[in-house]
Specification:
Bound molecules: 2-acetamido-2-deoxy-6-O-phosphono-alpha-D-glucopyranose, magnesium ion
Pfam family, one: PGM_PMM_I
Shape: globular
Enzyme class: isomerase
Number of strands: 19
Largest sheet: 5 strands, mixed
Cofactor: Mg(2+)
Radius of gyration: 23 Å
Strand content: 15-25%
Organism: Cephalotrichum gorgonifer
GO biological process, one term: carbohydrate metabolic process
Length: 542
């Protein structure tokens, strides 16, 4: 085994990052310029081989993607058996394994982790993997496969997939043949499950008007085309026009399009030219983020981000739960991060009267918190999120005897939503179908949806600092404990603005700090963001 790993590792050398710098498994796994990733991916293969054996030979997923990042980047992350993100303790092991200085050290680390965690290396191991459309994905898959071969791990290549599809497949594979079977273990199984749930969730209603879907020139494009083959336009009213679906020119990926572009630039993708009044939405490069938007003929561009999707979904499901007379039986809650617009938080708390949890940035934190509810709605403002239903909730939808046609309808739609909404991770395609279902039920346009509340103007600023690790936070990243004294200064600053709120945190994906600010007016929000950014810069350079 040792020799095999060492020999294979020699074909996938790790590129030293230089003095004191380490590869770290962050919020999105390992992500960087693709040419640094060959050795990293090989080593992640070793980690996945260990993880599968630790998890009683269950299948582990590995996804090769850099999501919304530029085409030249790539990334690799590990999916746990139920389709969740890799368990946090293992992130440290991943970092350790990837930074082993020599091939021999690597093989020794592999064995020592197995020993420490009582992993039987002779047990069977199983890993499945997929990749987005980046050309560098081919080579990285080969590196991954070499690690699986060197460790005699059974490997299945699902080729091109969206990230949420891989999460789906991992869960399906590990629940196959059990009472919790999640679906057929194939891409077709995914489309069948969603298209069938879509019809049930609509319950005879139809989507109206065209929906233009910007696929960021990423893997979402071909996958959405594929999905549409499973959907009857007549039955569902779904009239989708797929745009920015060019996967033949790799450099086009995420370039001036996609969910991240729309969210950060607060404008529609310039191409194709947006038609005023048409309902539109954008996926990111691996189709796990969704942002709705449209160009209003009178008032201009308007965006419905993750906060909006979250409050829409929460209000819809809470209404259904009341119609099903289950409000005393099932607890529904919403989970956000500090980036959620204050207006959305107030709307959910005061108007919808639902409990809210706030967690640090990163999907795994939100997901974990959402599991505490029977129905947990979680979204990051950037458009990543989903709705989790507990086994108890799903059973209740199925087993409750309806006392009226209205109650039956509510129970059926709730059960359908449980199948429509990806239970493993945020999924742009599945979330989009949910939004379409809700709009059809409410007979709403995007404008009706937008009118539910008004966002507070906000601004995000990126600040370069010498050492981002000097910035440490508490209270779900809403307050800084370090550098000492900075939080007081921020508080003083914030207190001068109407409805002002601001926080600073170290990025988990780049070497920089991010400052968020919101206030009653555009100019106040901009001003507050700049003032806090100056403070961060000043303390960062001290
Ligand atoms: C990663 C996270 C995303 C988060 C972002 C924040 C996952 C799968 N992805 O992309 O949820 O919003 O990082 O980036 O957890 P930042 O730390 O650089 O602000
Ligand atoms: Mg993504």
């Amino acid at each position: 085994m040792d020799e095999k790993i060492i020999a294979a590792s020699k074909r996938h050398p790790i590129v030293p990052l230089g003095e004191g710098r380490l590869y770290t498994y962050g919020t999105a796994g390992f992500r960087m310029k693709a040419d640094l990733l060959d050795g990293v991916t090989f080593r992640v293969g070793l980690l996945a081989a260990l993880r599968s054996r630790k998890m009683s030979s269950k299948a582990i997923g590995v996804m090769i993607t850099a999501s919304h990042n530029p085409a030249a980047d790539n990334g690799v992350k590990v999916v746990d058996p139920m389709g969740e993100m890799l368990e946090q303790d293992w992130e440290g092991l991943a970092t350790k394994l990837v930074n082993a200085p020599t091939d021999e050290d690597l093989a020794a680390q592999y064995k020592s982790i197995a020993q420490q965690l009582n992993i039987n290396l002779d047990a069977p191991g199983k890993v499945i993997y997929g990749r987005d459309t980046r050309p560098s994905g081919h080579g990285l898959v080969a590196a991954l496969n070499d690690a699986l071969e060197a460790t005699s791990t059974q490997a299945t290549d699902f080729k091109l997939l969206t990230t949420p599809q891989l999460h789906y497949l991992v869960r399906c594979l590990n629940t196959e043949g059990t009472v919790n079977a999640y679906g057929a273990v194939s891409e077709a199984g995914y489309y069948e499950k969603l298209s069938e749930a879509l019809v049930r969730a609509l319950g005879g209603r139809k989507a109206s008007g065209q929906l233009v879907v910007d696929c960021a020139n990423g893997v979402g494009g071909p996958k959405l085309h594929e999905f549409l083959k499973y959907v009857s336009k007549d039955k569902t009213g779904l009239d989708i026009k797929v745009v920015n679906d060019d996967v033949l020119h790799p450099e086009a990926l995420n370039l001036d399009c996609g969910a991240d572009f729309v969210k950060t630039r607060q404008k529609p993708p310039p191409s194709p030219r947006p038609t005023p009044g048409v309902r539109s939405c954008s996926f990111d490069g691996d189709a796990d983020r969704l942002i709705y938007h449209w160009l209003d003929p009178e008032t201009g561009f308007f965006m419905l981000d993750g906060d909006r999707i979250s409050s829409l979904a929460a209000s819809f499901i809470a209404d259904l739960i009341r119609s099903a007379n289950l409000q005393d039986e099932l607890r529904i809650g919403v989970v956000q991060t500090a980036y959620a617009n204050g207006a959305s938080t107030a709307y959910i708390e005061k108007h919808l009267q639902l409990p809210i949890g706030c967690t640090p940035t990163g999907v795994k934190h939100l997901h974990h918190e959402a599991l505490k509810f029977d129905v947990g709605v979680y979204f990051e403002a950037n458009g990543h999120g989903t709705v989790l239903f507990s086994p108890h909730a799903l059973r209740t939808f199925r087993d409750t005897q309806p006392q009226s046609p209205a109650q039956k309808d509510a129970l059926d739609v709730l059960a359908a939503c449980g199948d429509l909404i990806n239970q493993t991770v945020g999924d742009a395609l599945s979330d989009m179908l949910l939004v379409e279902v809700i709009l059809a039920h409410k007979n709403w346009t995007l404008k009706d949806w937008a009118l539910t509340y008004s966002d507070l103007p906000n601004r995000l600023v990126r600040v370069e600092v010498a050492d981002k690790d000097a910035f440490r936070t508490t209270d779900a990243e809403r307050r800084l404990t370090h550098p000492v004294g900075l939080q007081d200064k921020i508080d003083q600053c914030v207190s001068k603005y109407t409805r002002g709120r601001s926080f600073a945190r170290a990025s988990g994906t780049e070497n920089a700090c991010r400052v968020y600010a919101e206030a009653a007016t555009r100019s106040e929000a901009d001003d507050l963001a700049n003032k806090v950014a100056q403070l961060v810069k000043q303390y960062g350079d001290m």
